[in-house]
Amino acid sequence: MAFAIARRTFAALGNERFRLLWFGTLFSFLGMQMQIIARGYLAYDLTGKNGALGGVMLAFGVPQLVLSLWGGVIADRLPKRNVLVAAQSVIALNSAWIAAMIATGQIAYWMLIVAGVVQGVGFAFIGPARQAFISDLVGRETIGNAVVLQQMSMNGTRVIGPSLAGFFIAVPFIGLAGVYALTTVGFFIAMMTMLRLPRGDPAPGARDHSPLADLRDGLRYVRRKPAVLQLILVSFAVVMLGFPYQSFLPSVAASVYDVGSTGLGALSSAAAIGAVAATVAVATFADHPRAWHLQPVAGIAFGGALVVLGLVDRFEAGMVTMLFVGGLAAAFQSLNNSLTMMFTDHEYHGRVQSMTMMSWSLFGIAALPIGVVADHIGIRETLSLMGLACIASVILIHGYARLRHGDAIRPVAPGAPAPQTLRSQR
Questions:
Q1: Smaller CB count within 10 Å for the chain: N or C?
Q2: What pTM was estimated for this model as a whole?
């Protein structure tokens, strides 16, 4: 019984090509998780303001908002491996630059803004290409499982990445410069691993039309697919209104719990442990129709966990709450991503994933006004408001979709004939 469950949970890793993508992405995720902690700590240390944390996220979010849709078009038109390698190289060089600036004592807040812009550009192309590549590497019957396992690799690095970053920041001969140097190594390892992947060529005829025509076609496709549109809208709301909590953990650690960089790493690791547990659980039924019904439950529960996080004022209680915050956030994101991939036709995967990932650019943009609010009313009160906003958004979007479409939006088992509302009507 246990063997059967484990086999179902890790089914996609039996595919050698997907396993290679998963392994390479693991190093990229590890570098990113360490850098998130280092960047937040550095921004707060340089300025002492929550608004500064939001400013860094804004710099990351704006280019993603502008370029994500084009990143999806590129993913559907060009070899995905080449897109991944090129964008990963840019991010690695960007990280190396910041490491050098810190090591030479020339670092300034504006440099973090520039670095955020470069990262935003890189991830506008990496995200859609990586997600679309998954469908090239695995069969449709395991695509949901593969998407969740990719999410699990990210959450796994969140367990050790923040703790490593917090520990290294506190070590005098390593510090922030050393953390950025280590993240640079992780990005280069990811790039070299991705060179071993197949090209991931686009579908025949993918470049028969102009990029602008492809972009318009992708937008029309989503309008014809109410289930996909609903998933994208819910992702926008929850990620934009709730996920910025990650940007303000340095403030929570410093001003609420007074635990420094080590405590910051512990809080992030608690969230990551919950996230890993949640994604392992989700992976066992990611390809099952019940996933459709659990997605809004996860979104509402995540909002509730944020409300609780805003209410607790002791570090120990905050650690326990972060387990639920991280776990429920990961469950929602994993379910949303896998459902979106399952309901999307192969030739549109890049463009549809780019729309979903635009929510992360809104996350970055929303972080700045949320940071300003936190500076005026307090970070704890702001976290509770963010949670309530998530709950209200999920209820409103699902309620409206139910009223407008009724039973037309319903889950479809992988490989089964799709109902008319869930098929592309070209």
A1: N
A2: 0.71
